[in-house]
Task: inverse folding
């Protein structure tokens, strides 16, 4: 098939994939397709993919609204099948804004994470609890593990090694399907600059889904020692963002929270 005969849909899949910095194999892995299938889509040899396939590709490529509409329209022109776009038009908030809203509306210390564990938004209670007001204001993107492994900040965590080991295991499990992404590779390179991270990651073998909640301890310079339990809120079937709240893990911490108005 000549280039001039390739459909607009096939050209857009190739264009958006390349803009995202993904190979055909990486797109295939992330969207749970075979590399041959993606190759056939982009060369026009697959001229009638299902709406589910197209929606999966759009989700993996994280297409903004206009690009998503272009891809869906090209798909309809190619196949005659419609993809319901009312859902796109009727969504007033993207997931990032929704995650930010949830974080700001809870009285408990909370922050949101994107799927690679970059800290997306904090409420004031969380910055006070972890004493990171300056850290948040001076860095554009903060990663949860970079913060935990930062020698200047880890003194806040009582029993640091146990907490770090748990978080590394959880991170490896939660990102196991994203190791092909360019941003994951950059993040991994940055994390490996911390010697303790290299050691724990080399010894970590996540065998199953981690327990959804656990308790750890923080040593606060003014509030004293606090026992914190994690509470994670996720959107069912969507891993783009999650919200982590820190609730009291014992009676003493509950009293401290009440004094702080959390």
Result:
């Amino acid at each position: 098939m000549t280039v001039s005969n390739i459909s607009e849909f096939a050209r857009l899949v190739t264009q958006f994939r390349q803009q995202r910095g993904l190979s055909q194999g990486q797109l295939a892995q992330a969207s749970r397709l075979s590399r041959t299938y993606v190759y056939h889509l982009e060369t026009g040899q697959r001229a009638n993919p299902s709406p589910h396939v197209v929606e999966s590709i759009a989700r993996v490529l994280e297409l903004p609204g206009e690009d998503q509409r272009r891809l869906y329209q090209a798909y309809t022109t190619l196949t005659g099948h419609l993809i319901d776009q009312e859902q796109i038009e009727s969504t007033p908030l993207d997931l990032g804004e929704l995650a930010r809203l949830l974080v700001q509306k809870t009285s408990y210390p909370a922050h949101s994470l994107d799927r690679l564990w970059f800290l997306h938004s904090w409420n004031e209670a969380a910055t006070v609890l972890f004493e990171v007001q300056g850290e948040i204001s001076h860095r554009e993107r903060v990663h949860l593990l970079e913060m935990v492994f930062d020698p200047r900040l880890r003194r806040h965590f009582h029993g640091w090694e146990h907490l770090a080991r748990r978080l590394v295991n959880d991170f490896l499990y939660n990102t196991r399907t994203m190791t092909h992404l360019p941003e994951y590779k950059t993040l991994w390179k940055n994390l490996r600059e911390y010697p303790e991270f290299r050691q724990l990651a080399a010894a970590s073998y996540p065998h199953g889904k981690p327990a959804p909640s656990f308790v750890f301890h923080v040593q606060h310079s003014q509030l004293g020692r606090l026992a914190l339990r994690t509470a994670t809120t996720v959107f069912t079937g969507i891993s783009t963002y999650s919200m982590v709240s820190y609730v009291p893990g014992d009676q003493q911490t509950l009293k401290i929270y009440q004094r702080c108005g959390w």
User: Anything to note?
Assistant: Residues 95-260 form a domain with the Beta-Lactamase fold (CATH 3.30.450.180). Strands lie at 110-114, 118-122, 142-143, 157-158, 215-220, 224-235, 238-248. The longest helix spans residues 65-79.
